[in-house]
Amino acid sequence: MTAEAVSRPPAFAARPEAAQGRLSEVAGLLSVPGFLKLCISNGLAHSFGQRMQGIAVAWLVLEMTGSTFWLGVINGLPAVSIVLFSLAGGLAAESGDPRRVLIASRLGLAATAAAAAVLVSVGAVEPAHLLAYVLIVVGIAAVDMPVARTMMHEAVGTPRLLSASAAQSVFMNAVNICAPVVLGVLIGVSGPGASFWLLAAGYALATVLIWRTASPVGSRRPSRGRSPLSEIAAGLRYIAATPAVASLVGLAFLLPIAGMFFAMVPVYARETLGLGAGGLGVLVASFSVGSLCGSLYLTVHGAVAGQGRRLTLLGVAFGLGVIAFSVCGSFIVACGISLVMGVTAGFWQNMLTSMVQVSASPEMRGRVVAVSTMGFQLMGLGWLLAGLLATALGVQATLIVAGLLFGGLSAGLFAFGKGLRDLD
């Protein structure tokens, strides 16, 4: 028997031990008080707000107007609300009880969705009503997201943050897998009003869960006695002066370009693939299945080495996926590409979200998270850009432009910005 043969059993024996250790870490994460409720509540609030609401509004706008221009306007103009309210959310995350903020914001989201459901159900809705609805909902969500992310960090601590963020994405993607199909069926059977009632129910459940979650220890912070504007200015100066943080925030602001892809999926499904609402639901759900797989991997494995380089490669891969999606012309192939893009997005988003929080100093974390989530929430601006481009160039050309921009700018930030290279 050779020395090589003798050395193999311990190596193979170590693998189950490593796997058991990773599962123990996941079990420890789930045992954190209130973590599971916080995960599910955030998953409902953010997945419904980012994805399900976009599908419901987009399909209704297309039914009412048949216009990609109106589709872009109604989903893009709410960027005004994001700019106005995101930084207020950052200050709320740093000074006050985050649980109280989330209860108020999610209750507001549920009430607004219920009001929209009534208007749609009685046939009284107009494009102006949908624009007002999205402006209000996006403004509330702009406050909600940075508060939710900093509350998660406080609940689990820095060492578990990437796994916790990924675990939360698992719940978000579980909703995203089921809800598009349910939305498609509801729209086909009962009309678009039913989809807004589903949104209201999801937000209401998120409110109940956060109500029953205790605030993390130390979440109440004393006021620093400075004006909100001076606090915001100090946070922006800190970001500009910190290369690693500035580069990560810059990556977050690529999300509006990704929004161009999501804006065109309903139009592509309807006009190019000839799908109805049910087919659109399956196409969107395939992306969420991929994102779920990526998030599950990160939940178990936690930290990933060389994150600056990996973020760049993931961004380039996502851009290439958008281009491939635009030229496939087949429902089955489109679902497969969407699945792979979802895996890529699951890694990219969770790594970026946790790296932003870990890289920022504690006293600036809320404001840094607020600015980075502004990029995430400005994804709706991509709907406006895509609507304008699609009107002029068509759906396929718009998708190709989006893919080139996302992949090219991801590579450019790494090549010409010092911050991402320092993270390796």
A few lines on this structure:
This protein has 18 helices and no strands. The chain has 424 residues and is an all-alpha fold. Helix 7 packs antiparallel against helix 8.
Q: Determine the oligomeric state from the structure.
A: single chain
Named CATH topology: Growth Hormone, Chain: A
C-alpha-based Rg, rounded: 21 Å
Globally, the shape reads globular
* Most strands sheet: none
Termini gap: 42 Å
How many domains is the backbone divided into?
Answer: 1
Mind explaining what this structure looks like?
With 424 residues, the protein is mostly helical. The protein has a single domain (34-214, 227-422), classed as Up-down Bundle (Growth Hormone, Chain: A), CATH 1.20.1250.20. 85% of the residues lie in helices and 0% in strands. It contains 18 helices and no strands. The two termini are 42 Å apart.
Any chance you could write out the topology, listing elements then pairs?
Elements: H1 3-30, H2 35-65, H3 68-76, H4 79-94, H5 98-121, H6 127-156, H7 161-190, H8 192-211, H9 228-241, H10 243-252, H11 255-272, H12 277-301, H13 307-328, H14 331-359, H15 365-377, H16 379-393, H17 395-416, H18 418-422
Helix pairs in contact: 2-3, 2-6, 2-7, 2-8, 3-6, 3-16, 4-6, 4-15, 5-6, 5-8, 6-15, 7-8, 7-12, 7-14, 10-14, 10-15, 11-12, 11-16, 11-17, 12-14, 13-14, 13-17, 14-15, 16-17
